[in-house]
Amino acid sequence: MRRVFALTAILTILGIANAHAEDTLSPLHFQSQGPLGTIDKAAAQRGYEVYKSVCAGCHSLGKVHYRDLEALGLTPAQAAGEALAAGGTLNSPIKGAAPLNMGGAIPPDLSSIAAQRPGGPNYIYNYLTGFGPAPAGVTLLPGHNYNAAFPGGQTAMPDVLHDGAVTYQDGVQPTKAQEAADVAEFLAWAADPNLDARHQIGFRAIIFFAFLTIIAVASKRKVWRTQA
Amino acid sequence: MTAQTNQSWAASRLPCLASLCACLNARTMAPGGSYFAAFPFLIAVLAAFLSLSGIVLAVFYNPWHAFASVQFINRDVNQGWLIRTYHATGTTLIFALAYLHLFRSILIRAYRAPAEFSWLMSVKLLLVLLLTGWLGFVLTGGAAGHLSLVNAANAALSLGGLPGAVGLWFLGGPAGQGTLARLEVFHALLGISLLLVVWAYFASRKAAAQVEPAKAVAFYPYYLAQYFAALAVLAFIFVLLGFYAPGVSGVAANHIPAGGLALPLGAGVPWYLAPAAGLLGVFPTAKLAVAAAIVAVVLLYALPWLDRSGPDGAKGKVYCFFTWVLALDVLGLGLAAAGVLPFSPVLAVLFTGWFFFHFLVLTPVVTAMEAK
Predict the structure, then answer these.
(1) CB-based contact (8 Å) between B218 and chain A?
(2) For residue B228, which residues of chain A lie inside 8 Å, CB to CB?
């Protein structure tokens, strides 16, 4: 009975988390966020596509390997194919740019960027969609672009995303906002690849220790009753 | 039956086993102890747990590439992230229990004769924990830990004389290449020595316990059952924190590797170091801060003698009230150090002043008044 109950509880919670997996834009949200979050693998796979075709030109992703992509639902053969296409093996880090220097600004490695910036994927989304014409009164430094989300308002990174910057294989429309949201979810996974495992183990452990606590307290009371 | 025979077989060949069993079964413990009295036991369990998880981490840790090796543990070592989560969550919980245990000891005046020594060991426990916790924070190689290390090393440099020499010997000069390797040794040594401190605490608490023989109960099965229940609750809180709030024991800026050009804003320290950081932070020079730390430690150690109520003084309401105020004061120091309170720098000075005022003035005066 208890098992059935626990199972239903897990399924309900996972179900709630999965129910939004399709449309992540209205309203904007990331399935990986929140205490019961799980990585949205479809979004993260699309985000990998964005990283590969747009961001890798300037950024590296040195701590993530091709073998790790299997956690996003790629088959070992697909992951090996990705590695081969980039001239590496399953154990090579995902291909990115060699260290660049763009007028004094260095594109940071993106492996942990979602953990390093307050707001995580939300910030990355706002940053990638925050470019625009500088408001009156703002003088841009040479080689810089106005960005509403970036601290200080100007960044050396150009506005790189636009509608159709990539082609998605799963039929999702590659709008600029969709690309930004997908690559943000991908980077959230890259920064915390153990998120799913942690939440899954945690859920089981909590149920286990809840019952253990009840049993331990009951047995303590029983033992102490004989003492009087 | 067979268990009985087995026991005597082993016990006759290893007599200390028999005395251990006898001591577990001896009716020497107070009847109906509070669950809170299990805190030191839980601290001992956590200290052992941290030592074990720490050994696993030490196998993979590389002080010359600290940040990268922590990333390696998190990402590439099988279940490395799990062990690291255990170590971090265990740290948060052992500090929480140590703070609560000290607070409760003051509140119920568990430090009074003949239990002074268990109080001294409780204070020592917190001091060793603070040092070990700080070293662990530095060992991560993150930007926040590195900043803290550079500040400490610079302070040690500026001290001069014997304290400066000791500080330099301990830290190995301004945060250089070999510094983390040496700090790793101290971290492990101090961490494992926690077990000794806890053992001394238990031994002294046992010696000080005055239990009426007719009412006393045995550890086995009574307190074993109680401690097990306490442990189950602790484990429950542990998994809740560890799996759903793994960030509680760290600071965000430590996700950034040390040595970058940009200094992280509001780098800060983990919550468990915050009260101490708040207290030290109000003093303008390193000399004053070290002096204040020494005075604070001496005052804590001296508490059994600052309490003027005598061995059978009544338990006073006013003293209880001020103990709660002290708890809020320490909490406030931590919050001020984190900069989350408005006027944090001013408040930190006030809270620091109150801390010394509590022990130097309030404790002797209030206890003496209430004893009458």
Answers:
(1) no
(2) 216, 219-220
Of the candidates B228, B239, B246, the beta carbon closest to that of A216 is on B228
Chain B residues 314-333 within an 8 A CB cutoff of chain A: none
Give the separation between CA B34 and CA B232, rounded to whole angstroms: 16
User: Is B219 within 8 Å of chain A by CB?
Assistant: no
Alpha carbon distance B152, B165 (integer Å):
13
- pTM comes to 0.91
Domain-wise residue ranges, chain B: 34-153+182-208+219-268, 270-372
Is the pLDDT reported for residue A207 higher than 90?
yes
Q: Is B71 in contact with A118 (Cβ distance < 8 A)?
A: no
Which residue, among B143, B147, B77, has the nearest Cα to A112 in the 3D structure?
B143
A63, two tokens: 């701590």
CA of A164 vs chain B CAs: smallest distance (Å):
33
Q: Rounded to whole angstroms, how far apart are CA atoms B351 and B328?
A: 9
pLDDT band at A17 (very low <50, low <70, confident <90, very high): very low
Output the tens digit of pLDDT for each of chain B's 372 residues.
Answer: 444 555 678 888 888 888 888 878 878 888 878 899 999 999 999 999 999 999 999 999 999 999 999 999 999 999 999 999 999 999 999 999 999 999 999 999 999 888 999 999 999 999 999 999 999 999 999 989 988 888 888 888 888 888 888 888 888 876 667 899 999 999 999 999 999 999 999 999 988 888 888 888 888 889 999 999 999 999 999 999 999 998 888 888 888 888 765 555 556 899 999 999 999 999 999 899 999 999 999 999 999 999 998 776 667 899 999 999 999 999 999 999 988 888 888 999 999 999 999 999 999 999 998 887
Are A1 and A12 within one domain? yes
Residues A55 and A163 in one domain: yes
Put simply, whether B255 touches A (Cβ < 8 Å) is: yes
Write out the residue range of the structural domain in which residue A180 sits. 39-193
Q: Does B367 lie at the interface with A, CB-CB under 8 angstroms?
A: no
* Closest residue on chain A to B78 (Cα): A194
Residue A147: what are its φ and ψ, rounded to 5°?
-145, 120
In this structure, are strands A93-94 and A61-65 parallel, antiparallel, or unpaired?
antiparallel
Q: B34-153+182-208+219-268: which CATH topology?
A: Cytochrome Bc1 Complex; Chain C (1.20.810)
Name the domain count of chain A: 2
Q: Name the DSSP letter for residue B253.
A: G
- Integer angstrom CA distances of residue B368 from A63, A82, B195, B321: 63, 77, 36, 15
- The Cβ of residue B228 has, within 10 Å, a number of other Cβ atoms equal to 18
State whether residue B74 sits within 8 Å of chain A by CB: yes
Interface test with A, best of B29, B65, B75 (most A CBs within 10 A): B75
Which CATH number does the domain housing residue A114 bear?
A: 1.10.760.10
Q: Of B221, B226, B184, B212, which Cα lies nearest the Cα of B62?
A: B184
SS3 of B165, please? Answer: helix
At position A173, the amino acid (one-letter code) is Q
